Amino acid sequence: MLPSAARDLIDSRWDQDIVARLSDYIRIPAKSPAFDPDWAAHGHLQRVAREALAWGREQPVRGLGIEIVAIDGRTPCIFFDAPSTLAGHGNDRTVLFYGHLDKQPEMSGWRAGLGPWQPVLIDGRLYGRGAADDGYAIYSALSAIAALDVTGVPRPHCVGLIETCEESGSFDLPAYLDHLAPRLGQVGLLIGLDSGCGDYERLWMTTSLRGMLGGVLRVDVLREGVHSGNASGIVPSSFRILRTLLDRVDDSRTGKLRDPVYQVPIPADRIEEAHTVGAVLGDRIWQQFPWVRHADDPASEESDRARPVTADLVEAILNRSWRSTLSVIGAAGLPSLQEAGNVLRPGTAVKLSVRLPPTADAERAAQRMKAVLEADPPYGARVSFEVDGFASGWNAPPTAAWLKAALADASLAAFDREPVWMGEGGTIPFISMLGTKFPRAQFVITGVLGPQSNAHGPNEFLSIPYAKKLTCVIADVVAQASL
Questions:
Q1: Where are the alpha helices (DSSP H) in 185-323?
Q2: How far apart are CA 67 and CA 185, in angstroms?
Q3: How many CA atoms lie within 13 A of 312 on its CB side?
Q4: Could you give the angle at which helices 44-57 and 19-26 cross, rounded to 10 degrees?
Q5: Dihedral in degrees, nearest 10, Cα atoms 467, 357, 285, 107
Q6: Bridge-partner residues for 103, per DSSP?
Q7: Helix 136-150 to helix 4-13 angle, to the nearest 10 degrees?
Q8: What does pTM read for this prediction?
Q9: Above 90 in pLDDT, residue 49?
Q10: What residues contact 178, with CB distance under 8 A and at least 6 apart?
Q11: 74 contacts 45 by C-beta, under 8 angstroms
């Protein structure tokens, strides 16, 4: 088990160093390239990489090599390499750490005087965009390794890849994987710190991730806007056509996607996990969300507020982790309410985001979406669906006995509770890529994004007490990987 001195070192490092570093990181609008096409000129991604690199070079990790790797025209990556400290040949496993430093775009402020780029520490929670999703990853990973080295705990070869393109679908990552492949060794264990947790009371292990596809659906009817009193009833509304097209994809009453390409059988072990998660979390599964109330009274009855799609705990978990969903996440062609005149607009465009089951074929789903939306346009309107990206999901391989035991020991030591295993609804393209590249690797996919942490929102937060314990868990598991 991890020595108490190592736990104390991790705790003090967070308090005396990492929180301040992450506060500086929050202030930098290091938006992912999909949201900042001029990222190279703005230099924010380069800056967060340089600052993390400078910090990494100061860490007491034996034999650490750390650098920024930059392929022309691509977003930069940080790569670190810490040789094994095992005596003799030992275990030939390489432990690969993964995280990212790019961020989603900002949203409006969440409290007067506060916003997504302004760090604030309240009751052990560090608020601000990007710290939890997941700027903390490199700081947690190297602190875990340093704690082992300083306290003399042997460990295997550790490498790390921290990208700056994840929120854009990691489209630069395959090139870096090919470029760095000779330096990765035989990856036996991948530790990804970009996932979530069901609460802040125990270790949560991610067993699956959904895939996704996105694109822009555009409907054009006229060359220019015209008076609605003169044209409506003769000229079809582009918005009504758009509604008709979306009904081809999902049932607006239930949210279920219609085509079989978006559906897969759910494995029995994942259903069993959902039952366990439901028993652990109960109604917290949906109570974590900021539901709107019909009355201003915060203590209003449950019936006086918006409610979830289903009250069945297991179905809610499976909906979130193993079933497809369609969301409209942006729109164009719609004037603001203040600027909306009585005009029948020439066209409407919406940006779609579809979460796919972990084992669905993302490329086939994207092709099918385009075919369904563009076929036989109503009223002969000009309809296009341009796919702007897709990524495969991931379903974890069986966990090796040694790793399951190590995780249980580490969770009990840090949280005094057994770990819980569950599927997550998000997408981490890198995990699927690594699963293909290293089919024999074991996976520890976890993270700090728990209830109300609101990743991608203006009030995203990182629970410092939870991050400390998770760092101890990671150190413990890496130490046991040397056995």
A1: 228-231, 238-249, 268-281, 284-287, 313-322
A2: 17
A3: 6
A4: 170
A5: 60
A6: 31
A7: 140
A8: 0.89
A9: yes
A10: none
A11: no
